[in-house]
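Notes, p. 3: input format for complexes.
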Amino acid sequence: MAFYITTPIYYVNAEPHLGHAYTTVVADVVARLKRLKGEEVFFLTGTDEHGDKIVRAAEAAGLSPQEYVDRIAEKFRRTWPLLHIEYSRFIRTTDPAHKRVVQRVLDELYQKGELSFGEYEGLYCFGCERFLTPKELVDGVCPDHRTPPTPLKEANYFFDLARHQEWLLDHLKGHPDFIQPPGYREEVLGLLREPLEPLCISRPKSRLSWGIEFPFDPRFVTYVWFDALLNYLSGIGYPEDPSWPKWWAAAEHVIAKDILKPHAVYWPIMLRAMGLPPYRRLHVHGYWNLNQAKMSKSLGNVVRPEDLVARYGADRVRYFLLREMAFGQDAEFSEEALVVRTNAELANDFGNLVFRTLSMVKKYFGGEVPSPGEEAPEDRELAEGVLSRVQAYLEEMEAFRFHRGLALLNEAVNLANRYVDRVAPWELHKKGVQARLSRVLYQLLEGLRVLAVALSPVMPRSSEILLQNLGLSPAEELSAEAALSWGRLKPGGRVERGPVLFPRLEKPLFEEEKPSEEEKMAENLYPLEEFKKWDLRVAEVVAAERVPGTDRLLKLTVRCPEERTVVAGIAEHYRPEELVGKKVVLVANLKPAKIRGVLSQGMILAAKDSSGLKLLVPEGEVEPGAEVG
Ligand SMILES: Nc1ncnc2c1ncn2[C@@H]1O[C@H](COP(=O)(O)OP(=O)(O)OP(=O)(O)O)[C@@H](O)[C@H]1O
Ligand SMILES: [Zn+2]
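Output follows (629 residues plus adenosine-5'-triphosphate):
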């Protein structure tokens, strides 16, 4: 099966930062997952190099636009391998082949009558490089750039989006997973409720010459978005290369929410006008924030990926990025969080399992894979526990729910750690129960093998080292089948202890590693004996929002039937907007408590298992305030 994944082409008006790295790591992880499953993958990334802002950035750097874009594109291209990102092709919109595709498409659309020429008088934002509608202005200024737009009267070419609006609406309705997660699909449906304005797709050369010339009117260059989106086709050799239709039929784009409209509205309509099918899926993520503000080159609050890699290593950074952000939602970046998270889950949990298993095999069996011998019920339980979580992990990862997937894998690690503690191999050794010891260590080595394969898309280098230490060849072992089967290690094989995979980092004094007392309270960890005294009621959620500065807490306003606020530790499992209108079960007679400055008057009940956390909800219509019991 073929799979085609893309990142946005990044605008080269500044160097790459962690936001760009996140999208590109996500695409790389998914590409590796698909390869693990035996799929044939094309992974495209690159740079967007035309437009006003590039000219100005080049001037500021004292370079010609071409020199400037060459330099920054090179910077992007060199950054990705540092993060173990392996793309199939790096495309630049200044590539002659890409320019030819853009001109060809313009010609074609012009001939088909999809473009019109006309005078337009409007308000132009130079930051956005486009005309804004009066409705888009906030207090007379561009909401993104906080500057008043310039009145401009210009003749230009326009692309009539409204002509295909009905079609797009139908397509969205007929394909619920076209745009994911669902909140963004809703947003796009919202955009389509109003008639779409014609898109101005040309810029007069008198004002801007750094762009792709219009093939049938040399007075104009192409609007940078119209040019940029076509990279997804030119990147796979459209229209000459015979393999492009195979990739295009399997196209999935990954973007952040800032560029939702061009990808979810302009692009499918451009494809439609060209007579091509739309892409298969659009995956939209939120922002990495630094000190509560979007990490952005314009604000200058950026983290450089190469600095993080130098300090922590690529695999730790990759793991953190995927584990910490719930795909679709925003997340706050801090090095403290990176250290705390990876110390807990990689150094303590996983690293410890690896280290003690390999040490015991070395000590008790001279570094040889012991024979499995007879299986005890607890051995089977471990194997089944690990494999079922790995299976669920693979499913979550393929659905872009990376943080949940990795939480499941961490559970598998800890099943193995608890198994070690319970069977205490050192006691078996002391007692001389050799056959049992042999099975136990075989189980643990198998656990490591399965985890190493499963983790390979996220942490390719560490996975490779671990497989080599297990005496295996990564090239042969890397398959989904190998991650889902037990008993592949051959007794007698050589095992090396190797270096510590994830050394524990000096823990900065920043944050507690465990949830605070307040957060535990919000996570429903009340002692059991209290339970009987609780007043349980049905409550309807009327509003929900994140508690600022936290990743797990939501502030809910509920009716039961009077209104009150409740803080719940469920932000990693529910988006605020999904909760509004839901009826939930509330513990109504708790002493109110302040949690992160928000008064919480009760507690919402939820159930948790390996697939995540689910709220308890009444099965039919129930009045808010109804007693539960
Ligand atoms: N803070 C961020 N969090 C997550 N992804 C980001 C972030 N900033 C940029 N990206 C990624 O880069 C894409 C936008 O690329 P582009 O080069 O246009 O960046 P930009 O918006 O100009 O950057 P900036 O916001 O730094 O000015 C986003 O769709 C996303 O893939
Ligand atoms: Zn603007």
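The first strand starts at residue 2 and ends at 11.
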